[in-house]
Amino acid sequence: MKKFNSKSCEEIMTTMYKPIEFVVDGLLAQGLYILAGAPKVGKSWLALDMCLSIAKGEKVLSQKTVQGTALYLCLEDSHVRIQNRLYEITDEPTERLHFVIMSESIGNGLEEQITDFKNEHSDLKVVFIDTLQMVRNESESNYGSDYKELSVLKSLADKFEIAIVVVHHTRKCSDSDPFNMISGSTGLSGCVDGSMVLMETKRGSRKAKLHCVGRDIENAEINLQFDNDLKKWIVTDEPSGSKSKDNIFLAALYVYLKERIDFCGTASELVNALKSVSDEAFYPNRVTRDLVQNGYTLKKYGIDFQYKRTRTGRLIILHHDRECDSSDSKNYTVVTVNGKRKQYLANP
Asked: Which stretches within 161-208 are classed as H helix?
C-alpha cells in the first residue's frame, strides 16, 4: 500500500505555485464548466462568440481573453449551419478555431480524441462540447453517475490546464436559485469548477441574465442583450471594476524596489518600508500571502522573491533586476484618493 504524499502547512503556504490562468478574465479559468440554459435561448451563439474571441484574442462579454486555439464540438449541427453562423458574426477566419460535428462519447474515445488534438495544438485553451447529452453514456441521471462521468472531463481539463465547457439544458420548472435549474442531479454542479446559467428575463425578449458561480471566479450576475445585427450577447451594465488591494501592494513594492533594488527583513519591516512610497495601509499577516501568490507576476517585473526561515523568525528577501524587467516605463500609475497616494500596477 502506498503512503500519503503529504505536504506540511508551511510548505504549501510558502511555495510559489503557477497561478490558475483565466481564459476569459474573471469568468472562465482552467477547469471544467457548465453553460446551461433553456432550449433556443442563445447558448450556442454565446459559445461560438467565446470560442472565436479566444481564438482571436479579442474581448468577449467585455472581458479580456487569453489568445490560443479553441475547439468547438458542435454535435447537433452541420458544417453548413456552422458556416452560416460564422458569416453572421465575422468575415475574418482564424486558423486557431476548429470545429467538430461528430465525436466519441465519454469513456469510449472522447478523452483520447481531445488528447490527440491537444498534442497537435499545444496552445489549446478551451474546448466547448455542445451539448453534454451528445457525449454521455449513462441513461440514468443520479448523483453518482453524473459525477463519475463529468469527473473524466474534469481530470482532462486539469491535466492539460485548459478550460472545458459543456453546454447543457435547464429544467422547465422555475427555481429561485438558477443553478438548481440545471438539468440532472447535483452531481453535475458538484463536479464542475464553475457553472453559468443563461436565463432570459422574459421568453423571446432577447434580454437575459448570465448567472455565474465557481471555485476560482466571483459570483456574478451579468445583464445581457442579444444584438440581432451582430448575433452576439452584449453586456448592458458593465460593472465598474475597482483595483484590488493586491494590485496596490505590488505597485508599491515595485516602486520601492526600483529605487532601492534590495530588501531583507521581516513582513513588519517591509510594511514600514513601503510607507516611504505609499500611504496605503498594508498588513504584515498578508504580505507573505501576496508575495507567494503573485510570485509569477513579480518575476515579469524583474523581482526575485525568497522566503527564509531563521532561528529568530522568517525573513523576506527581495531583489529587483532591471535586465529581467519585461515591463515598460508605464507599468504603474499613481492616483491620489482622499489625499492618499495609491499606485496601480499594469500588466507587463
From this structure: 186-191
